[in-house]
Specification:
The protein is built from 15 helices and 12 strands. A hairpin with a 4-residue loop joins strand 8 and strand 9.
Amino acid sequence: MKLGIVGLPNVGKSSLFNALTGAGAASENYPFCTIDPNVGVVSVPDARMDFLADLYHPAKFTPAVIEFVDIAGLVKGASRGEGLGNKFLAHIREVDAILHVVRCFEDDDVTHVSGSIGSVRDAETINFELIFADIETVEKRLARSEKMIKSGDKKYVFETDTLRLVRENLEKGIFAARMALDDAQRALVRELFLLTDKPMLYAANISEKDAACADPYALPQVSALLELAITQGAEVMAVCAKLEEELSALSPEERRMFLEELGIRQSGLDSLVQKSYKLLNLISYLTAGEKEVRAWTIVRGTKAPAAAGKIHSDFERGFIRAEIVSFDDLKACGDMATARAKGLVRQEGKDYVMQDGDVTLFKFNV
């Protein structure tokens, strides 16, 4: 699963990417420093994994991961090709969700493409480009559907009506993800891979000074961005990309001391990664033993046999049952033997929908 980092030039995208991945992407003070997207795989912080590692002392430790793609800064007119916009929009089309970085800090040494800070204005500049690109996509499909109506196939009447509705909503500034559509209409929209149909998380990039304040979400630029996000069904995460990039280069002990000096209880980066993981509608089930403690990534709503197939196709093909204990129950008991003695280890069948944090052992026969 890929999550694309987007935003205007010089808002801190590459700095945030560097902090996330330690990949050392260029982050110079001029537009289009990033042209080809940088890609990094990031481990998802999970305290449950740490508990299981302490319990089993495994030979191997494998956390869940997500992929972040640092996409170059978009500008006004990107949907018409401005600033290499067509190329950058194509990169966004390939990701599963969007991490939209919005500059909420003042710094005379870092050029702003509009000359001043305005979180809502900046966010809407990007959002309008996504909408314009989607309108172009819809109109291309609509032109074909309108021609095919003459064939007498009713599906093209449905397509035409739906596409006109989608175009009308886009022209009103409504994201595809927020449109009131029935299941059949939603299925058609999914075929178009619209940019505004992707889940979005705003990263409000604040200054180091503001990162230490009691409530960064009360900051004017962040608060205004929150109001915009609510109308789009999106979330906002306040984070200082510059601080996080500096912290990522330190040892865990140095990081802890640095945060204490700044009066910050913990880095916002772990929370950002976890929010990104949830944005993709992903959960983790866990397997644990002396050989390996591992988090397996599945889409929320996955049933037990398909989850078993993440380990090996034979597990899904020959699925018998899943032996499951919730992580919270296991932690409260202290070990698997006690959880089993208390009757907290369950036997689940093919129709069981996996839950986040299920500690699982699959039984299969091929």
